[in-house]
Amino acid sequence: MVASCSGAILTSLFVTPLDVVKIRLQAQKNPFPKGKCFVYCNGLMDHICVCENGNSKAWYKAPGHFHGTLDAFVKIVRHEGMKALWSGLPPTLVMAVPATVIYFTCYDQLCAALRVRMGDYAQEAPLLAGAIARVGSATVISPLELIRTKLQSQKQSYRELTDCIRSAVQTEGWLSLWRGLGPTLLRDVPFSAMYWYNYEKGKSWLCEHYNTSEPTFTITFVSGALSGSIASIVTLPFDVVKTRRQVMLGELQAKNLSCQDSSTFCVMSRIVAQDGFGGLLAGFLPRLIKVAPACAIMISSYEFGKAFFRQHNQERILGPLQTSNT
């Protein structure tokens, strides 16, 4: 759990600046009005952010004239300081880090248990363990993300929020707290299953190729980047649908409107009608550039942390034994 927590923080520190720059460029091209939503990604999770009316001090509304990604990096650091590259990060880590810890810890425990029970099919254990772990973490976090969006968009106190949630549950049922979970699972469960299966396969192949029993940092980094790239390409249409639906739900919540005609099929049909089937593959390169390094950094730091703690625990256990033997 400590290894996955430290890996999650490292990943967010490396990947968040890319998304901050992307959002600043978007805001420069099309200024965000009140109630407008945008997706903020810290390398671990996608979060919906709702623009606040009249808040000219919000980090995404900071003045700046950028001529491209590199120019934006340089000017943000020069005029606003290094910390500006991690704008908006702390609030998102409150959910992203626990979700990552749950996900990685559950995967490891499930995979170990399934390998024992699946016998001849033990090689498929990562596929099943990855899918189940993702379902679990997404189900736990989904209501919290909904609550965070409401807090941000409507500026409610916790008491008002409690009344709002109670009213929503009474009128729409408990399932209203998991609104938007379906598209999330459609993207994240196949992604997770493919990612872990390809990662374990790639790691085993590279260990065999380089004749090593334990994977090195480089092996885990390369395996993570390649498996993340493959999974992100295959699940891209689901990512497009999920992002559109997240933004749609966020903007409806910000305006206190009911969520109608926002099913996964409706969103997919609308995208195809407006942009053709190519619209389902929009953002291919930005997603790949974001996902590949995030997966590589997360898994390599996680594996490094596990190896470190494993060695530390072995030394702690064997130390007294060696002392008593001597």
Write the layout of secondary structure elements.
Blueprint: H1 2-29, E1 37-41, E2 46-50, H2 69-80, H3 89-117, H4 125-154, H5 158-172, H6 181-209, H7 217-234, H8 236-254, H9 264-275, H10 284-325
How would you sum up this structure in a few lines?
With 326 residues, the chain is mostly helical.
Helix share, percent = over 70%
Any idea what the radius of gyration is? 22 Å
> How many distinct beta strands?
2
- With helices defined by DSSP (H or I, 4 residues minimum), what is the helix count? 10
N- to C-terminal distance = 35 Å
Please list the strands of the largest sheet in the order they lie side by side: 1-2
What amount of the residues lies in strands? under 5%
One letter per element, helices H and strands E, the order comes to: HEEHHHHHHHHH
The main pleated sheet reads as: 2 strands, antiparallel
Q: What is the mean pLDDT?
A: 83
| Inertia-based shape | globular
- Strand pairing plus helix content: what structural class? mainly alpha
Descriptive tags:
mainly alpha; 326 residues; 3% strand; two-stranded antiparallel sheet; globular
Could you characterize what this model shows?
With 326 residues, the chain is mainly alpha-helical. Helix content is 72%, strand content 3%. The protein is built from ten helices and two strands, in the order αββααααααααα. The chain has a two-stranded antiparallel ribbon. The longest helix has 42 residues, at 284-325.
